[in-house]
Each structure stands twice: as structure tokens, then as C-alpha cells.
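Researcher: Structure prediction, please.
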Amino acid sequence: MEASIYKFIGVGITMFGAALGAGHGLGMVFSNWLQSIARNPSADDKLRMVGFIGFAGTELVLLMGFVISALLIFAV
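Model: Predicted structure follows.
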């Protein structure tokens, strides 16, 4: 087998791991965010910024996985 086959297998594993981690993280962030708002509706304004920061941090995992995959394809 050529080395390029292993490169694409590595890219697939990287993207799978990043997507799995981001999906799990988003589920945890939004489930806990909605649960905390349901328990204390008056804290919605305070919790909104925390929820969006959690969303952005979790999506950063997926974006970093994509960047690493692109580097594996084009730079190696």
C-alpha cells in the first residue's frame, strides 16, 4: 500500500474523533444549559453568555479537527 492510503485513513480517524467529540460536547452543553434555565428561569440572562461560550468552545474542537485533517492531506 502506498503512504497516501494511510494518510487518508488518518484523516478519516481524525475527523471521526473530532465530530464525535463535538457532537457529545454540544449535547452536554445544551442539555445542561436548558436544564439550568428550566430550574431557574430568572437566571436566563446570566446563563445565555455561558451557553454561547460553551457552544463556541465545543465547535472549536470540530474546527481544529478539520484544520488538522487539512494539514495531514496537504502538508504531509
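Model: The longest helix spans residues 3-39.
Researcher: Thanks, that helps.
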